[in-house]
Design goal:
alpha/beta; Rossmann fold; Jelly Rolls; 2 domains; 37% strand; globular
């Protein structure tokens, strides 16, 4: 399975994120994500965005082709980078790095874009700081340590038919509303947990999973 890594802006990334990546992924940087990618030693295959925050030094060092967009546009640089990753033949899994810290509107917008149904055919994960999130459109397995926190956050509307296995407080056909905290702060019972949904989109957030 070919994997794409989308490196976006926001707060800096620690070398610990490299442990989350497979060997030789296809890397697309969203604007200033190129600075983070270069700092991590990643080979960048494409830079996407309006380039209002990428530094000239990082662009030069990456030596990557650039897909430049106007500043006045209807999509964020992250969404444009995700489109580039999703359109690449053979990609089945996408890992987004960054997009945390800084402005709250950017963080909320990033979460909405990452959980978008337009990527439902892909396995999408998000590593933001020391936290990991897995986008669930149907079923996903979560890996961790017994006792680790897990929050199930509905995005875009109610999520119905939620079943969990391997979490301390199980859900059996539950409906999670985006206006309720029902799915927040569950716990792993063992090293692997499974979450299934009937309809809707969940972000399964594992705080502190990347160390």
């Amino acid at each position: 399975m070919e994997v794409a890594v989308v490196v976006t802006g926001g707060a800096g990334l620690t070398p610990a994120v490299l442990e989350e990546l497979p060997d030789r992924p296809w890397v697309v940087a969203a604007d200033s994500g190129v600075d983070h990618a270069v700092a991590l030693g990643l080979r960048v295959d494409l830079v996407v965005g309006d380039l209002d925050s990428a530094t000239p030094d990082a662009l030069a060092e990456s030596n990557a082709p650039v897909e430049r967009h106007p500043a006045d546009k209807d999509a964020t640089d992250l969404e444009l980078a995700l489109r580039a990753a999703a359109s690449r033949p053979g990609i089945r899994r996408v890992i987004v790095l960054g997009g945390h810290g800084g402005r709250l509107d950017h963080l909320l917008g990033n979460a909405a874009v990452i959980a978008s149904p337009q990527w439902a055919h892909l396995q999408v994960e998000w590593v933001a700081g020391s936290d990991r999130a897995v986008v669930i459109h149907d079923v996903a397995r979560l890996h961790g340590t017994p006792g680790d926190p897990v929050s199930l956050v509905p995005v875009g509307g109610p999520v119905t038919g939620v079943h969990t296995h391997g979490l301390r407080w199980p859900l059996r056909g539950a409906t999670l509303s985006p206006f309720s905290s029902l799915g927040v702060s569950n716990r792993m019972l063992r090293s692997v947990a499974e979450v299934r949904v009937g309809s809707g989109v969940l972000l399964a957030v594992q705080p502190g999973a990347v160390v």
